Amino acid sequence: ALGGGTVHLSAARDGAHWRIEVADDGLGFESAEAARLFDKFYRPGDEMRRRTAGTGLGLYIVKKFVEEHGGRVRAASDGPGRGATFRVWWPATEEQAA
Q1: Is the CB of residue 31 less than 8 Å from the CB of residue 77?
Q2: Which of 56, 58, 59, 75 fits 43 for a cystine, CB–CB 3.0-4.6 Å?
Q3: What is the Cα 92 distance to its own chain's centre?
Q4: Region of residue 78 (left: phi > 0; alpha: psi -120 to 50; beta: else)
Q5: Main-chain dihedrals φ then ψ at residue 32, nearest 5 degrees
Q6: According to the model, what pLDDT value does residue 97 have?
Q7: Does position 72 have pLDDT exceeding 70, yes or no?
Q8: Residue 19 class from Cβ within 10 Å (0-12 exposed, 13-18 middle, 19+ buried)?
Q9: How many CB atoms lie within 10 A of CB 66?
Q10: Rounded distance between C-alpha atoms, residue 34 and residue 29, angstroms
Q11: Strand order in the sheet with 7-14
Q12: CA-CA-CA-CA dihedral for 29, 35, 36, 37, to nearest 10
């Protein structure tokens, strides 16, 4: 069933970056789809069986925003129904790096 679930958020220094992690116990995805999740208009799954709304732009926008600021973003999942983890490496400011 859709809805509910748990989301965990964490942040920590990782060298010259802040690593921000968002993990959930939701829908998940096939590991082979991880990189494609950030493609414009891409939505995993079968359009004919889709139960969720969306345009496929959210993660595309996140990736562009993060990269424009010198960071990077990655997604991982242990498979459908097993949740997902999204990690962002955001550059620390000069004051934070010292």
Answers
A1: yes
A2: 56
A3: 20
A4: alpha
A5: -65, -15
A6: 55
A7: yes
A8: middle
A9: 18
A10: 8
A11: 7-14, 17-24, 84-91, 72-76
A12: 60
Per-residue model confidence (pLDDT) at position 1? 45
Whole-angstrom distance, CA of residue 47 vs CA of residue 14: 38
Q: Mind giving me the DSSP string for the chain?
A: --S---EEEEEEEETTEEEEEEEESS----GGGTGGGGSTT---S-GGG--S---S-HHHHHHHHHHHTT-EEEEE-SSTTS-EEEEEEEEPPHHHH-
Residue reference for tokens 């809805």:
3
pTM value surpassing 0.90 = no
pLDDT in tens, 23-54: 999 888 899 999 899 999 887 765 545 566 67
Residue written as token pair 């859709």? 2
Amino acid at 49: R
Measured distance CA(39)–CA(24) in Å, rounded? 21
